[in-house]
């Protein structure tokens, strides 16, 4: 079972980052493609901290620990000078990663409903992809949600938000990830309700 979780972890981060690279290329920026990030090779997307965190939490979840897997892969580099509408296009590129994870989760969930024997494989894939998508939608840098927030805010507020998140986003993220006095992290408390809602919809009889 642990091997299935590891495979789900590899697929989730690979699809997530390759989707960023694909969307950037479609919107006119070849930077990620030229750097080899438009690839289904998981090694080119590995981040020493974020990916390791996701892997460890995934293995803990597979062993029965009540944890929510979350983490990130190596960010895809973008040259905004190649984009027609840098703020909007950056938001679209950022959203492509979480969106691809939710689509993949939906595909596995539908397959499990029609092929019940597939459920043992589908459940880890759905949980990991939903968890990765929801976590990355938190609106702080360096997560995808930070760029999405800047992209959808009115221009006069967007620059203020980008300045603040660029300076303090990483500090806030570290604070959210660190375990609190109760033993769990604040980020788990924040994203758990959304993750559980998606899982109840996608896997109503399987979790």
UniProtKB/TrEMBL annotation:
Its main location: membrane. Pfam families: Peptidase_M50. One of its GO terms (biological process) is proteolysis. This is Membrane protein. The keyword Protease applies. Belongs to the peptidase M50B family. PANTHER family: ZINC METALLOPROTEASE MJ0611-RELATED, ZINC METALLOPROTEASE YWHC-RELATED. GO terms for cellular component: plasma membrane. The chain crosses the membrane at residues 49-70, 91-111, 117-138. Its cofactor is Zn(2+). It is a multi-pass membrane protein. Residues 6-114, 125-176 form the Peptidase M50 domain. It comes from the Bacteria. It comes from Candidatus Woesebacteria bacterium GW2011_GWA2_33_28. It is found in: Cell membrane.
């Amino acid at each position: 079972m642990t091997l299935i979780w590891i495979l789900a972890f590899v697929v989730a981060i690979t699809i997530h980052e390759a989707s960023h690279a694909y969307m950037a290329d479609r919107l006119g920026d070849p930077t990620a493609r030229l750097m080899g990030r438009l690839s289904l090779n998981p090694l080119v997307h590995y981040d020493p901290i974020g990916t390791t965190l996701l892997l460890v939490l995934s293995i803990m979840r597979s062993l029965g620990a009540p944890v929510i897997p979350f983490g990130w892969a190596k960010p895809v580099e973008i040259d905004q000078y190649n984009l027609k509408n840098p703020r909007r296009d950056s938001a679209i590129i950022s959203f492509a990663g979480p969106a691809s994870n939710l689509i993949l989760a939906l595909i596995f969930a539908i397959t499990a409903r029609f092929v019940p024997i597939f459920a043992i494989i589908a459940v880890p894939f759905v949980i990991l992809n939903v968890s990765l998508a929801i976590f990355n939608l938190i609106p702080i840098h360096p997560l995808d949600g930070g760029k999405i927030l800047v992209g959808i805010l009115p221009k006069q507020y967007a620059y203020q938000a980008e300045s603040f998140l660029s300076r303090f986003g990483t500090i806030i993220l570290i604070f959210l990830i660190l375990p609190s006095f109760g033993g769990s992290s604040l980020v788990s408390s924040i994203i758990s309700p959304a993750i559980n809602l998606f899982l109840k919809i996608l896997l109503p009889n399987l979790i």
